[in-house]
Amino acid sequence: MDLVTVNGLSKRYGGIVALSEATFGARAGEVHALLGENGAGKSTFIQILSGAVQHDGGSILVDGRDYRPANPDAAQARGIAAVFQELSLIPDLSVEQNIWFRHEPRTLLRTVNRKEMRRKTLALLEKYNFPALRPDQELRRLTLAERQIVEIAKGLAKDTRILILDEATSALPAREAEWLLKLTRQLAAEGRLVIFISHRMAEVRAIADRLTIFRNGSTVAAHEANAVSDNEIVTQMIGRHLDRLYPERVATATDSIALSVKGVSSGSRLSGVDFALREGEVLGVGGLQGHGQRELFQALFGATRASGTIELWGKPVSIGNPRQALTGKDGIALVPEDRRGQGLLLTKSVRENLTLSVIKRFTENGLLSRQKEAALVKEMVDFLRIKAGTPEQLAGTLSGGNQQKVIFGKMLLTQARVLLLYDPTRGVDVGTKGEIFQLMRDLASKGYAILFHSSDMPELVHVADRVLVMRNGRIAATLEGDHISEEEILRAAMLETKAA
Amino acid sequence: MSAFLARNRLIVLAYAGMVVLLLVTALFSPGFLSVSNMRSTVVLAAFVGIVALGQTFVIIGGGIDLSVPWVLNSAAIIMALLCGGQDLPLVWVMPLLLAGGAFIGLVNGIGVARFGVPPIIMTLATNVILQGLILVLTGGSPTPSAPALIQFLSVGRIGGFPVIALIWLALTLVATLLLSKAAFGRHLYALGTSATVAEFSGVPTARTTVLTYVISGLTAAFAGMLLTGYSGQAYLGMGDAYLFTSIAAVAIGGASILGGSGHYLGTVAGAMVLTILTGLLPALNLSSGALLIVYGAVILLTVSVGSETFAGLGGRLRRKEG
Fold first, then answer.
1. CA R_g for chain A
2. Which residues from chain A sit within 8 angstroms of residue B181, using beta carbons?
């Protein structure tokens, strides 16, 4: 018998149907993948399962009993926990305090039993072979990837029979992602049900026993994983045949140098980086996570202090803050790592987000012209095919892919022609990914210069014209032409690390 | 139109609350709705409204200004001292004191934006320092009476309308333009919503922050001079009441105390609500202690009715019905 049975599940937000008549069934002891583009209804589905929102129609049975959690605590009481992309951790607490938050082991006097907490934390970390985490580390000092791992530990800390992993691998570097996949199999072998969302087909292939496909707010098919081809899956996800994810790589780079970087250093993470980015070029930045990629992008954008020389279009510039980076046609714009924390005003409209960086341009005698603004917003929404009810829809209510498009639109409106894209496809559905790669190519052919970091190595291999591999805050190798492959990137990223 | 209502639900709610309160007050105290009484209510509300103008900008930007009482009080006392009851010195005294208020705002803003001092600490400190300076300056002795021109600005009338109401109207217009029709407004809402996102979007976050405190310093100093005209003289402690009322007016007007939302048009309703309340409560024949308790409780209730959480609850209830 299925552990979870869902029938006719529906959810509306005002006039917007987020989920309609979804069906789902999953057994204990299996890894069940949910596939679908962003906005297809997966997120709503798991939010309902985890008690974060309540459904309006349909039924959920867990163990044959009706299941309708009023909140995540109620879901937890039935043994269901979710690890979300949007991290729920508290920066001021330690790793272990976060893991046991509100479920701390107590002493007789009801105070927190620190010894017991430490013991249980270490036992948990050891049982599941967690990558290096110290229980007493303060969370704010951890990287995004490490936080994601803490989040997973938190989900496992309670008696969880059904664990939902929402894009849990997307923030993880290759080695940790592999660990997570192993962990997922281990949990299934222990008789738990793991519901797994990922936009990486290879991962789904590696671990899923069964999969359910979502499209347009409903479920369209469920398959045994080994009985269906990648092509069939993608076709069912997007409802049409997708020719190819990666656009053809046309060489559009000219001899003109758009961005020249010499000896750029920042703190201990970035020590003397040199490279040149040409007009019309997509230059990839790869390497293991935490080897200076983030610091490089932030330094070029003026978000952290850095020393060294930066030239834009042949002119030396001094970029002390993002405002200076974004100034004028010769500026430099960034799609930041943290979409929700750095990129978007979630509680403001698509329109206000799009025009935030360039709002001055719509003023005449100091007063805003709403017509001018609306016209340009409409143009950008159409150009990027941003799926929003109206430009007044709040950015936080859009799907991940559409949120990312809004950030792209905001960046393009600045008219900067040197673009820094930090992991722009993280947590973005496959359809939008394809659109983003195509957009990058189109922009390159129009003379934009693009610096592109991705935590998903195949993206670098298939999209970038050249790839810089970073190691210990330096450029360890520059790969070109046929030398761009996952093996070469890994080799350059790891070889000396081993020796050291 | 319905989109407008949805977006500005809390502001509309504040005005609805104001009307209800007016009717209730009229019930308890007949004659409250008379022209002369409404006129004096608007005059009193104008002082709260003008102080709360700056406070609105600061709060939308994610800060708070606790220095308004003594910026107001300092401007009042120094004006009285420098003018000595004469109109002529106002020509230079008024610009000087407005500049002084702006300067205090500048200090607050730089402390917050450049040195990262929490707004509560920074503005509380300037407030106390100003209080000390004024005590040293006056030695506690009474000041000369207010110049006639200032009295005209605060209690005079033009064509039946109180001058100060016209001033308030003009300031409301300016504030509305700044918030709704200027790039500064957009930057301000972005700053209050997320300082990080604003910074990453190229918003001049430091300059915007400083400007909100400068505006607050300006309006507090201006209100101080006008209030001197209203009372006929300046006295120690005359600004104390405006700390609470300026913040409460903003909150009643629908702004989130955490920043990023709200509008001065809401604050205007908030100032009216607070002033009508002070008119209603004496009509209930309560002791002055009981008055304060009811006053505080009613404000607490009004603010929570208007707050986002309560509105969210209402939204949830509606969805369940539907």
1. 23
2. 367-368
A249–chain B Cβ distance below 8 A for any pair: no
Residues of B in contact with A325 (CB under 8 A): 202
Contacts of A476 (CB under 8 A, 6+ apart): A287, A469, A470, A492, A493, A496
Domains of chain A and any CATH numbers: 4-238 (3.40.50.300), 257-499 (3.40.50.300)
Q: For residue B202, what is the nearest residue in chain A, using CA coordinates?
A: A323
pLDDT score of A499: 38
B chain contacts of residue A327, beta-carbon cutoff 8 Å = 202
Q: How many CA atoms lie within 13 A of A235 on its CB side?
A: 7
Give me the amino acid identity at B296. Answer: G
**Tokens for A364?**
């005449």
Q: What is the pLDDT of residue A500?
A: 36
The closest of B236, B226, B215 to B90, measured between CA atoms, is B226
Tokens linked to B8? 């500005």
Instruction: Using an 8 Å CB-CB cutoff, list chain B residues near A344.
Output: 197
Tell me, what's the pLDDT at B305? 62
Residues from chain B contacting residue A10 (CB–CB below 8 Å): none
From the CA of B187, how many Å to the nearest CA of chain A? 7
| Residue B39 contacts A where some CB pair is shorter than 8 Å | no
Label residue B65 exposed, middle or buried (CB < 10 Å: 0-12, 13-18, 19+): buried
Are A337 and A343 spatial neighbours (Cβ–Cβ below 8 Å)?
A: no
* Residue B197 in contact with partner chain A when CB distance is under 8 A: yes
CA angle B197, B201, B205 (to 5 degrees): 75
Q: What does the domain layout of chain B look like in residue ranges?
A: 40-305
In single-letter form, the type of residue at position B308 comes to: E
Task: Match domain B40-305 to its CATH number in 1.10.3470, 1.10.8, 3.90.550, 1.10.10.
Answer: 1.10.3470
CA–CA separation, A280 and A214 (whole Å): 37
Question: Which of B193, B200, B308 should one mutate to test binding to chain A, selecting the residue with the greatest count of A CBs within 10 A?
Answer: B200
Does the distance separating the beta carbons of B187 and A345 come in below 8 Å? no
* Residue A266 DSSP label: E
Report residue B133's pLDDT band, with 50, 70 and 90 as the boundaries. Answer: very high
**Across B303-318, average pLDDT:** 49
Mapped onto helix, strand or coil, the DSSP state of residue A167 is: coil
Exposure of A190 by Cβ count < 10 A (0-12 exposed, 13-18 middle, 19+ buried)? Answer: exposed
pLDDT tens digit sequence for B20-49: 989 988 888 888 888 888 999 999 999 999
User: Between residues 6 and 25 of chain B, which touch chain A (CB distance below 8 Å)?
Assistant: 7
Instruction: Report yes or no: B202 at the A interface, CB cutoff 8 Å.
Output: yes
Q: How far apart are CA B235 and CA A319, in angstroms?
A: 51
Q: What is the pLDDT averaged over residues A46-55?
A: 91
Contacts of A389 in chain B (CB under 8 A): none
Tell which of A359, A364, A411, A412 to mutate to test the B interface (max B CBs under 10 Å): A359
Q: Given a cut of 90, is residue A269 above it in pLDDT?
A: no
Q: Please give the interface size between A and B, counted as residue pairs whose CB atoms are below 8 Å apart.
A: 73
Which amino acid is present at A466?
R
Query: What is the residue-wise DSSP string for B246-269?
Result: HHHHHHHTT--TTSS---HHHHHH
pLDDT score of A496: 55
Q: What chain A residue is nearest to B190 in terms of C-alpha separation?
A: A345
Mean pLDDT for A234-245 is 69
Alpha-carbon gap, residue A120 to A176, rounded angstroms: 22
Helices (H), A368-429: 370-384, 400-413
Mean pLDDT of chain B: 89
Cα–Cα distance for residue pair B162/B140, rounded to 1 Å:
32
| ipTM field | 0.87
Query: Is residue A231 less than 8 Å (CB to CB) from chain B?
Result: no
Quote the tokens at residue A228.
């269906």
